[in-house]
Design a protein that fits this description.
Order of helices and strands: EHHEHHHHEHE
Distance between the termini: 29 Å
Largest sheet: 4 strands, antiparallel
Helix content: 40-55%
Structural class: alpha+beta
Strand order of the largest sheet: 2-3-1-4
Number of helices: 7
Strand content: 5-15%
Number of strands: 4
Shape: elongated
Radius of gyration: 20 Å
Length: about 170
């Protein structure tokens, strides 16, 4: 038997779609929204490496970009977790847990149904975000606690609290 003797982590990362009122061109501009200064510097550096997207309800590209970002992570849906969805499927289809476990097609059906719900929720949230941020510029950021203490603070420390943003968990 093998025993793990060193430190074990449960690493995570989160992506953020952030709407800045104007294009990011200077560190001073970012410092108006992000503090402390070291966080502003990281956001500025990461923003400068991107081509921002103008938020427009007329842009299918903008909508797809935000939908794809949302759909890439965990989205809470109204029907609970995976076990709750299994239970509802068994009741709806009149199958037992054994039937479910012995036939991969049932799990494929569960995944397809979840993908449809995930897509619908992502679309609704993206449209709401666009409506609320028309004329702004979106940037994408990703930070994870597996990259050290500062990046953990970027992920979990409410970095974008002064800007309209969407947080996308990749836990």
């Amino acid at each position: 038997m093998k025993i793990k003797a060193d430190f074990i982590t449960n690493s995570s990362s989160s992506a953020f779609v952030v709407a800045f009122p104007e294009k990011v061109t200077e560190l001073r501009y970012v410092e108006q929204f992000i503090f402390p200064e070291w966080k502003a510097e990281i956001v500025y550096r990461d923003a400068k490496s991107q081509k921002p997207t103008l938020v427009s309800s007329q842009s299918k590209k903008c909508l797809k970009e935000i939908q794809d970002a949302l759909a890439s992570g965990y989205i809470e849906v109204l029907d609970g977790g995976y076990h709750e969805r299994e239970k509802k499927l068994m009741e709806r289809e009149g199958i037992t847990r054994k039937d479910l476990q012995e036939n991969p097609a049932w799990y494929q059906l569960l995944d397809r149904e979840q993908d449809i719900k995930r897509s619908k929720v992502a679309s609704e949230r993206a449209k709401d975000f666009i409506k609320a941020n028309e004329g702004s510029y979106i940037y994408h950021f990703q930070y994870g606690d597996e990259d050290g203490e500062k990046m953990s603070e970027m992920e979990h420390g409410d970095t974008f609290r002064n800007l309209s943003h969407l947080g996308i968990s990749h836990h």
